[in-house]
Design brief:
Shape: elongated
Strand content: 15-25%
Number of helices: 11
Largest sheet: 7 strands, mixed
Strand order of the largest sheet: 1-4-5-11-10-7-6
Helix content: 25-40%
CATH superfamily of the largest domain: Bira Bifunctional Protein, Domain 2
Number of strands: 11
Structural class: alpha+beta
CATH architecture of the largest domain: 2-Layer Sandwich
Distance between the termini: 69 Å
CATH topology of the largest domain: BirA Bifunctional Protein, domain 2
Order of helices and strands: HHHHHEEHEHEEHEEEEEHEHH
Radius of gyration: 36 Å
Bound molecules: phenylalanine
CATH class of the largest domain: Alpha Beta
Length: 350
């Protein structure tokens, strides 16, 4: 027998194998002791010694082919294919869930709705008037520099100025006063996307803020403090306290910065380790976390919204959803951009 003849035989067997309709018995028919493979393998002795090595290689390749082909058939058509085990557990479909930041926004909304706030949404591309000017920041006022603004390349409005990507949710303040025809009481919670020209491990260009605004007769700093404490307890758990420190914003007077006590160490700045020794709390270092800004609504802002500051007073607060949320989870995220990376290994943890 020649190599060409051997090749021809292998080819014939391959064609025959491809047309087999039942998978059971294939193994012994082709690979069994008296199977096709062994039969053609016997020809090896009849082959010219100079061609034997090549014939050996061809036969080996053919054997591997048969092994694979038959093994595939066996697994795709198991012999027990005519019965089904109805008690076997099913394959669990992969179920997604809301993004952690959406979950946080829902929770924040529910917490404020319980004390009579109404969730609203205002444009995330808005006029300079709502984002800055009505908030007591006249054109060219240096305070605007704190909000690293993206401007939209669009025609200016004669009264409302340029169009910008909202740098904070405070644009909702005067909009809410307008929505209610300048008629307090107002109790709004505005949660929206914000944008600033900054991007590094602790900042993303797009982030979320939530803004509270309460306006009525006789509203004082006490109401603000009570609301902050209420939120701290509801969101971070019983015992969490708020702390206010003097600050400056153009649109509030007085203005405050708000801290929450660390719920990991109970606001003490120290944790007791397993062996009873005290260590600095790695999460907060001082017992407190700075979260955002607040204050009593500036009379000029009330006037911009058509409300008489002689009759009404109000408070406002606003800060980032991302930071508020990562604090709650006790997370020290090295790179905050991970939240929006879409990486399932990260998202599936929440
Ligand atoms: N808008 C402010 C900021 O983005 C926060 C703030 C809101 C301060 C409301 C006071 C009152 O930093």
């Amino acid at each position: 027998m020649t190599i060409a003849e051997l090749k021809q035989q292998i080819k014939l067997l391959k064609t025959q194998l491809a047309s087999e309709t039942i998978s059971s018995g294939l193994r012994s028919k082709y690979l069994g002791k008296k199977g096709h493979f062994n039969q053609i393998a016997q020809v090896l002795t009849q082959i010219d010694p100079t061609e034997r090595k090549q014939a050996g290689i061809l036969l080996n390749q053919f054997k591997t082919f048969l092994e694979n082909h038959i093994a595939n058939q066996e697994t795709s058509q198991p012999e027990a294919a005519d019965w089904i085990d109805l008690t076997a557990p099913g394959i669990k479909p992969h179920v997604g869930h809301l993004h952690p930041i959406s979950q946080a926004m829902d929770e924040i909304t529910r917490i404020f709705e319980r004390i009579g706030f109404t969730r609203v949404r205002y444009p995330e591309v808005d006029w300079d008037w709502y984002v800055f000017e009505s908030l007591n920041m006249p054109k060219n006022h240096p305070a605007r520099d704190e909000w690293e603004t993206f401007f939209i390349d669009a025609p200016e409005d004669q009264e409302k100025g340029k169009m910008v990507l909202t740098t904070h949710t405070s644009n909702g303040q005067v909009r809410e006063m307008e929505r209610l025809d300048s008629q307090p009481p107002i109790r709004m919670i505005n949660i929206a996307r914000c944008y600033r020209r900054q991007q590094d491990a602790t900042h993303t260009q797009m982030f979320h803020q939530f803004e509270g605004l309460v306006i009525d007769k006789g509203i004082s700093l006490q109401h603000l403090k009570g609301t902050l404490d209420y939120f701290a307890q509801e969101f971070y758990g019983p015992g969490t306290k708020s702390r206010i420190r003097p600050f400056h914003f153009q649109f509030t007077e007085p203005s405050l910065e708000v801290d929450f006590s660390c719920h990991i160490c109970g606001g003490t700045g120290q944790v007791v380790t397993e062996d009873g020794t005290k260590q600095k709390c790695k999460f907060c270092k001082s017992g407190w976390h700075e979260v955002g800004g607040a204050g009593m609504v500036h009379p000029n802002v009330l006037k911009a919204g058509g409300i008489d500051p002689e009759k009404y007073t109000g408070f406002a607060f606003g800060w980032g959803v991302e930071r508020t949320y990562t604090l709650k989870e006790g997370m020290n995220i090295d790179d905050i951009r991970l939240i929006y990376s879409g990486d399932l290994r990260f998202l599936e943890q929440f």
